[in-house]
Amino acid sequence: MDRLRWGVLGTGNIVRGTIAPAMLAEPACNLVAAASRSTVDLDRFAAKFAVPRVYTDVDGLLNDPDVDAVFIATPNALHADQVVAAAAAGKHVLCDKPVALTIGEAKRAVEACDRAGVKYGVNFHNRHLPWVQDIARLVADGAIGRVTMVQVEASAGLRPPVGWRLDPTVAGMGTVYNQGVHVYDFLRVILAAEPCAVMAMLACDDGRYSVDTAAYTLLRFEHDLLAFVNSNQCAPHPLNDISIFGTRGTIAGTNLTRSRVAGELRVITDDAESATSYPVSGAHRRCLAAYTDAVLNDRTPNASGVDGLRSAQLCAAIQQSASEGRLVEVDYSA
After folding, report:
1. 224 FRET partner, CA 20 to 30 A, in 6, 40, 167, 212?
2. Tens digits of residue pLDDT in 5-17
3. Domains of the chain, with CATH numbers?
């Protein structure tokens, strides 16, 4: 097989704006089917992206013999069941984040894909950004010595939750799942480590919303490395910066932590200072291409379903910390 035939579950903004265009642009991808409950949306989607077959139910798409893999972009609470169903149908799965609302559901999805022998990936596209990969190499090479502290802001600007994202039974959390999980994931990549404890505070715009619109999380890694993450969707003019402090230098990224804008990275040590500009680089397409390559060449996806499970375990600790007002150890054994 030299091309992966794709079906998409859900035809919302992320699929219309990034995933479907990427599938058309990638030589190894072929978008052959789509499913949505709205026939109007389906018709428009099929016409815009020349999709030959459409379905108004999940089973119809999963039973399509011409579909090799599915991209899941439905409301958060549906993800785990749909991953399991896709695996049972023998389809490879690339799921949007979060993979589930609970640790148990995230683990069930991983186990279902393992049993079925299908590739399970997660749309943590930010880890594919060139600046993330460059920082990971700098940290691994000891360019700034041992990392001691990290500060990150990631904000979509003034973008309050709407639609199903207002319902915690469907969305789970708000900005933690919308922006925060991407930061927690690329920190794992940059630091090549798992956060072991978390202290979190969540805000919901003075009670206007039933999900969080701002999340302050303090993550502790091994060797007393601390990372502070400000994830929000209520700042009118966000900076979206990252600073990584080491024993022999600092890495400072300006306007980098959101994937669809350009930014700059500076590396500052006692001996030298350098600056690198990063244009918008199509993170979603990079993620799709990496996953497609993993399926076609029988490799573990980057990011994998296990990465999705790790994210669910961390988010459970964040939620518990915010609810109980205390430091919570992250349980990776559940």
Report:
1. 212
2. 999 999 999 999 9
3. 4-125 (3.40.50.720), 126-284+314-329 (3.30.360.10)
